[in-house]
Amino acid sequence: MTHHTPATSAKQFTNLRDHHGIPLDRPLSVAIAGAGARGAGYAALAAAGGTPVTIAALAEPRVGRRDQLASRYSVPTTHCHDDWRQMAGGPRLADVVIIAVQDTQHVEAVEAFAARGYDILLEKPMGTTAAECDRIAAAAEDAGVSLTVCHVLRYAPYTVRLKRILDSGRIGEIVNVQHLEPIGYWHFAHSFVRGSWRREDTSGFLLLTKCCHDIDWLGYIVGRPVRAVSSFGGLAHFRAENAPEGAGERCVSCSIEPGCPYSARRLYEVGLREGGVKRYFTSVAAEELTEACVEEALASGPYGRCVYHTDNDVADHQVVNLEYEGGTTASFTATAFTPQENRSTKIFGTRGQITGDGRHIEIYDFATDERTLIDTDAGGASAAEGHGGGDAGLISSFVRAHHEGRPELLLTGAAESRDSHRVVFAAEQSRRSRQVVQL
Questions:
Q1: pLDDT tens for residues 80-121?
Q2: Pick from 63, 228, 286, 425: CA 20 to 30 A from residue 259's CA?
Q3: In which element (H, E) is residue 158 found?
Q4: CA dihedral 297, 300, 305, 310 (to 10 degrees)
């Protein structure tokens, strides 16, 4: 049986109504450092939530996107910056800051904003190395500020219900877990072949940039520290030697594009016309959601390149085996070669089995042979649309915690994230060395 303790220490988290003088009827003021897809999405969730919030400052280098958000949230011109360093270097403009800049800038940004006294919500991954994670945790501790990492899966209604069931002892002690992260073929092509996370030297390896969510989630579900890890995987398909005959450098000028499952034209033109989750990815690829901007992105931007002719090097499949203290084991698979769908998990206990898909939980009871099906519907949110309600759950917990002075709502503090990231780095060490790594 496991018990949750607040992820933020008393030293790091002071009741904001005392520390910053926030009365209950005054909105929590939020600064956004990096207004890309994640930063803008978090801003929208914060502004639309039940806790009174003001978006007080923005830092974003793309003028069009910055101006659009500034207009939407009535951010004063004097509080809009084209570089987060300008915002961090000036007078403090908000109670909290959401840091959603590029991964390689996380440590510098946390150190700068923590020194100014901002309480922080940091997009995952926490840092790109174990040393960076240690620096980030130390910066928050030394400044006496709260730091929460965006491990959104912990905050999803599905996880909340699942954790409650496991802690109740419904399936006995957890013996082992089987977990799949189906990244999705076109999502992988967008983010990890053409996009910002395609290269290890400019962002990080796949298990860090995509799957630190899952390693953290598994540890949260099992409730015990990892003591050993092994891993295998690599870049199997998205390589020049696997290009079909006749493949061009860009989809717009490729003779075989109509039959290619990774066609950028199909992805972004469908996203523009039909909306849905593909519209989100189209908004990342193109400066604006117009036909002209999408055509320009396909013709000259990184998202119009052939998936076999880019400079990507991150793995497109990986397996990780984990041994936890007490002997519980877990196997994790991440792969590009799936539809876009929810994560799936089987949890094998001494008294029963749980099968889950990010929304539904099926409990099989060994004593009765009965199956119980639970629907944790989060308004139909899919894996690609808010992580099954996890994004909304995270933001709601974060703003309530800081507006109401309730640190127990924060599940992913610096220490928790640092520990789960250490497992990620150990797994990557194992993949490269082909040896079991002890923690």
A1: 999 999 999 999 999 999 999 999 999 999 999 999 999 999
A2: 286
A3: helix 157-167
A4: -130
What is the value of pTM for the model shown? 0.90
- Each residue of 1-11: pLDDT tens digit? 333 444 444 34
CB 120 within 8 A of CB 148: yes
Quick one: average pLDDT of 18-44? 82
How far from chain centre, in Å, is Cα 159? 15
Residues 328 and 174 sit within 8 Å (Cβ to Cβ): yes
Q: Which residue matches tokens 């390589």?
A: 239
CB atoms closer than 10 angstroms to residue 135: 17
Cα 238–Cα 242–Cα 248 angle in degrees, nearest 5: 85
Tell me how crowded residue 299 is: count the other CB atoms within 10 A of its CB.
12
With 0-12 / 13-18 / 19 or more C-beta atoms within 10 angstroms meaning exposed / middle / buried, residue 149 is buried
Phi, psi of 149, deg, nearest 5: -100, 145
Rounded to 10°, the helix 291-300/264-274 angle is 170
